[in-house]
Amino acid sequence: YENPWTIPNILSMARMGLAPVLGYLIVEENFSVALGVFVLAGVTDLLDGFIARNWANQKSALGSALDPLADKILISVLYVSLTCANLIPVSLTSMIILRDVALIAAVFYVRYKTLSPPRTLSRYFNPCYATAQLKPTFISKVRVVTRCKRILVAASLAAPVFNYVDSIYLQTLWCITAFTTVTSAYSYYHYGRKTVQVINNK
To answer: Where does the record place it (predicted)?
Structure first.
């Protein structure tokens, strides 16, 4: 049993809240403001990681799942909206969304399997009951995939502002991001069981 209202968890939830705002701004083609909001979302990500690493009472099992979940929601919304704005190809966005949906589904499955009976909805969704902690694989530790996806998002948001939408460098980023996405998906599939540490299965 743990307190879910830590500063890192609140920052992660704030990042989730910024996702629809960013999506709306991009669809409305307000790219300058969207770029600023994206930077703000990045600051919340840096802060929650820094606080969780340096203050033991701010680290939680919920945070180990909430932080990557917030990232996946934010990135998914960004990719879909940027695809609607014709700044990222549909094929790349589909690949990223499928990977993230599979990972989120796996998190819900792990929660179900590690929750001791009775498995009621109130206990399942109660963030105070910590049952498992997620440990990153090697490729996610070096954060190659996250960095590639964020660099591509930032570059795509800035493209219409600084007039380089058809740049070959942007298209190169598409290929790099696609490769790292496939590699990380295989890494989670192959080493999936090693990424879950059960806290209490009594």
So the answer is: Mitochondrion inner membrane
Give CA–CA dist 197/143, Å, rounded: 20
37-69 pLDDT tens trace: 999 988 888 888 788 777 777 777 677 778 888
From the number of C-beta atoms within 10 Å of its C-beta (0-12, 13-18, 19+), residue 6 rates as buried
Residues 6+ positions from 137 with CB-CB distance below 8 Å: 184, 187, 188, 191, 194, 195
To 10 degrees, what angle do helices 168-190 and 90-114 make? 20
Please state, in angstroms and rounded to a whole number, the distance separating the CA atoms of residues 136 and 185.
12
- Give the domains, in start order, of the chain with CATH numbers: 7-192 (1.20.120)
Residue 89: which residues within 8 A CB-CB, separation 6 or more?
83, 174
**HEC secondary structure over the chain:** CCCCCCHHHHHHHHHHHHHHHHHHHHHCCCHHHHHHHHHHHHHHHHHHHHHHHHCHHHCCHHHHHHHHHHHHHHHHHHHHHHHHCCCCCHHHHHHHHHHHHHHHHHHHHHHHHHCCCCCCHHHHCCCCCCCEEECCCHHHHCCHHHHHHHHHHHHHHHHHHHCCCCCHHHHHHHHHHHHHHHHHHHHHHHCHHHHEEECCCC
Find out whether 24 and 77 touch, Cβ atoms under 8 Å.
no
